Amino acid sequence: MTTTVQAGAQAPAAGPTGRLAALLNAIRAQGGRWTTNRAFAVYRHLPALADMPLGKVRVVARGDLRDLAAWGWLVAHDDTGRREYSLNTRKDVRP
Fold this sequence. Notes:
This protein has three helices and two strands. By secondary structure, it is mostly helical. The protein has a two-stranded antiparallel ribbon with strand order 1-2.
């Protein structure tokens, strides 16, 4: 099950955990712009999602990128005609 963040929602107090932490760690390690496909590639190797249909994994990846951006960990970019995300490096806006 994926949880979608509503506008104005607070990030978890301890920061992302579980699959969100795994995705954020991959983004930090690899850098660059992230799309649903790139997050999907990370999630395909997570044991917790191994039994989930691939279409559902893609939906979870898309929602998790959106949630991390809503919480201030990522910045959304639409300048290429598709939604991409990058790590938020501005300390004054990150939770």
